[in-house]
Amino acid sequence: SSGINAEYGEELKGEIKRLEQSKKSEASTALQQLEGKMSELSKAEVKARSDLESVHEAVKDEEKEKERVVQSIASTENLIKTKSEELVSAREEAEKLREAEASERETVEKAVAGLDAVRAGQMQNEKGECITYTEHLIKLKDQLSEASTANQQAKLKIKHFTSSIKKMESTCKTAE
User: Fold this and answer.
1) Beta strands in the chain (DSSP E)
2) What distance in Å separates the CA atoms of residue 83 and residue 81, rounded to the nearest whole number?
């Protein structure tokens, strides 16, 4: 019985040893699988962190680009406003120059008409009409005659009023 127990004990020890080795082998395989999965997860985490960092960098770059574009738009709008103001000013200046040119053209046309009249033995009156010097002299003599007549009439009226005033003064003195 002690031999059977010893044999049975050896058998049990062998079985325990085999089970322990089997268990160690299974644990080792499971551990290797877990370490493999852990390694894959670690690599995936590193890749995810790298991707997240890349996304953050891309977002920062996009924000910087957006800010640059906004500044560029503001700068362009200011430039457009300035150029629009310059355009309005230039148009106003051009209109003034057109008006001045039209006025100068009219003055030149009048001067040319006057020169043409002089060449033809005529002159221009104040209305811009061409008349001969003779017609002009006749008109001036008529104006002179009218002015002389008006002067004579004014002198007669002054003489009459002076005489009336003297009579009134003497009447007032005698009435006192």
Assistant:
1) 122-124, 130-132
2) 6
> Chain centroid to CA 74: how far?
11
Q: Is the pLDDT of residue 89 over 80?
A: yes
Query: In terms of DSSP bridges, do strands 122-124 and 130-132 run parallel, antiparallel, or are they unpaired?
Result: antiparallel
Note the pLDDT tens digit of each residue in 119-141.
Answer: 666 666 667 676 777 777 888 89
CB-based contacts of 128: which residues, under 8 Å, 6+ apart?
Answer: 110, 113
Which pair of tokens denotes residue 26?
């299974």
Dihedral over Cα of 124, 129, 134, 140: its sign: negative
Q: Is 19 left (phi over 0), alpha (psi -120 to 50) or beta?
A: alpha
As beta bridge partners, residue 130 has 124
